[in-house]
Amino acid sequence: MQSGLKIDKVDPAELAVAILGWLANEPDMLSRFLALSGLGPHDLRPAMADPGFHAGLLDFIMQHEPTLVAFAAASGYTPEQIADAWHRISGPGLDSGQY
To answer: Which Pfam families does the protein's record reference (predicted)?
Structure first.
């Protein structure tokens, strides 16, 4: 269902860079991300070349509402912009009927 609101689209890769920068300044969140992803700090720079890693960063933010709200407040992006970028980079889900 369309809400009729227009959302300024954000490039998912640009948003992924912003998320990683935010995580670098949030040690507890960075530790959580590394634990959930199985990556080490040395893996982050090379991983930024992978669009799948970008999707993983957005997924990390979207899967925990307090994290989404904290990132949105710190970054200036709206939760709607983040959700839109997440949907575009992640592709259709199983419940979308578009797979």
So the answer is: DUF3572
